[in-house]
Design brief:
- Pfam families: BAG (PF02179), ubiquitin (PF00240).
- By secondary structure, this protein is α+β, with helices and mostly antiparallel strands.
- The chain folds into two domains: 105 residues, Ubiquitin-like (UB roll) (Roll); 107 residues, BAG domain (Methane Monooxygenase Hydroxylase, Chain G, domain 1), CATH 1.20.58.
- Helices cover 54% and strands 11% of the residues.
- It has nine helices and six strands; from the N terminus they run H-H-E-E-H-E-E-H-E-E-H-H-H-H-H.
- Strand 3 and strand 4 form a beta hairpin.
- It starts with 8 loop residues before the first helix and ends in a 14-residue tail after the last helix.
């Protein structure tokens, strides 16, 4: 008996109905969904990225950048500044610094009674040709900048002093190495030379103690102090060895001086030791 087979068509139809196509995204949609609030200008300045959804940004992107003239009030004077419409307020501050003498970091630029950030764009903020702005001096920012300058000046001074001390210590340690070679080979040096090197190294150690440093510079200071102390201790050891050599070879040194000078010493002790023995005269006495 033959059985009836089921048709595969209903199963295929059910699978087709169950299939849901995946949603595809275009490259443009991905760019629009992602947010990039900051970007780097060609000059290296970090500025606010243009909003691709804003109408002003779309219009600015469609139209080429043009030169605009803005009037900036500072005190009782007005200054006309020509610059690109796509410039930032930070670039405007640099141009105003040449006219007003104010440091860019000390300026507060107001447009429509609102302070504008240095990274904001002129065109996105609504600045157009002929717009009026106001710039004022900010004492708080000036004080902060001066404090930062003083702090940086101290760091630069400490770094310069550290470089000079390092150079001087390098020269002194080279002289210490020369003395060490001479004394190790059995030669002797003037004790004054050893004492002078110790004194010069101690002077550099005092200079290092007067440097106020932080961070990496502080680490360099500690390393240099340990280095100077190490060579001072080495000189103390060399001084003791040199004193022993001087004591044991004093006679040899005297003979070398006599040979080189070409004449005998005039001291009574030397004359007595080097003169040949004089025979004692003998007399025969007669008794009367």
């Amino acid at each position: 008996m033959l059985g009836r087979t089921k048709s595969p068509v209903p199963a295929a139809a059910a699978a087709a109905n169950a299939f849901i196509p995946m949603r595809t995204f275009t490259a443009a949609a991905v760019v629009v969904d992602e947010a990039y609030p900051w970007e780097f200008r060609p000059g290296g300045m970090l500025v606010q990225k243009r909003d691709p959804d804003s109408a002003s940004a779309a219009a600015a992107a469609a139209a080429p950048a043009s030169t605009i003239r803005v009037r900036v009030k500072y005190g009782a004077a007005y200054h006309e500044i020509y610059l690109s419409s796509q410039s930032t307020f930070g670039e405007l501050k640099k141009l105003l610094s040449e006219r007003t003498g104010l440091h860019p970091q000390d300026q507060k630029v107001m447009y429509k009674d609102k302070e504008r950030d240095s990274s904001a764009y002129l065109d996105i903020s609504g600045v157009k040709d002929g717009s009026k702005l106001v710039v004022v001096d900010d004492p708080a920012r000036r004080a902060k900048r001066l404090l930062e300058m003083r702090h940086q000046a101290k760091i630069d001074k400490a770094s310069k002093s550290m470089s000079q001390i390092t150079l001087e210590v390098d020269k002194l340690t080279s002289q210490v190495s020369e003395l060490e070679v001479i004394i190790t080979k059995g030669g002797k040096v003037a004790e004054k030379d050893v004492l002078d090197l110790i004194e010069l190294l101690m002077i550099q150690l005092v200079k290092l103690d007067g440097i106020i440093a932080d961070g990496e510079l502080k680490h360099q200071k500690r390393m240099q102090e340990r280095r100077v102390q190490k060579y001072v201790e080495k000189l103390d050891v060399l001084k003791a060895k040199n004193a022993m050599l001087k004591t044991t070879k004093s006679v040899v040194t005297t003979k070398w001086e006599t040979f080189d000078s070409g004449f005998l010493p005039t001291t009574p002790a030397a004359a007595t030791s080097n003169a040949p023995p004089v025979p004692t005269p003998r007399f025969d006495w007669e008794l009367f």
